[in-house]
């Protein structure tokens, strides 16, 4: 039997492929990290929580395709393999069904009206590099990934944290801001893309975190505003394209 191509892998199959870890989060094992990194991890992961290799999420929100339209979605984020985001959006009361993904270093997107008629598809190097950037920033929904990967932490300021690591074939330079309790307030990185339709290049991309919740010992962002040109006025006027509420999360 031929191995399944990344574009063919289902969300359920990705979740079932996850091999659970056998370790627990111990704050003493990360005591060598900068104080700000410790503060974030201590807030995000309760002591004794099983170190998860993946998270499965249910969510709803709005996505901007000229106008804001509603969506519901399910997603699996797996440190070793990537992510699949499977969603249904409604435009003029008609469903658009599809997924964005990067699996084993290969990115793709496919969306169909009524689940039948293609409206947006994409593969290739630019799609993969952009999907890798999305994967990097969405690891804030899987904080244990920062314990599994080879992450270099630095803290230029008391409330600012920088994580540098390699994942899905791309180097991540992730900037986080936290409050005094260690709660995430923003996340930002340079992500490959062409939000203005010009040539692909690295553009600041990020999220404003408005709420958080705890699931299975993990405290993660649960209401976010996401978009391009992060940190500038352009984010508010044209960069923001994704507003999401996380309804449920389970970890494996």
Describe the structure concisely for a colleague.
By secondary structure, the chain is of the alpha+beta class. Helices cover 16% and strands 52% of the residues. A 13-stranded antiparallel beta sheet has the order 6-5-4-3-2-1-13-12-11-10-9-8-7.
Walk me through the structure.
There is one protein chain. The protein is an alpha+beta fold and about 250 residues long. Helix content is about 15%, strand content about 50%. It is built from five helices and 13 strands. It has helices at about 10-15, 35-45, 125-140, 145-150, 235-240; strands spanning about 55-65, 65-80, 80-90, 95-105, 105-115, 115-125, 150-155, 160-165, 170-180, 185-195, 200-215, 220-230, 240-250. A 13-stranded antiparallel β-sheet has the order 6-5-4-3-2-1-13-12-11-10-9-8-7. The longest helix is centred in the middle third of the chain and has 14 residues, at about 125-140. The radius of gyration is 18 Å and the shape is globular. The chain starts with 10 loop residues before the first helix and ends with a strand. The model has no long low-confidence stretch (mean pLDDT about 95).
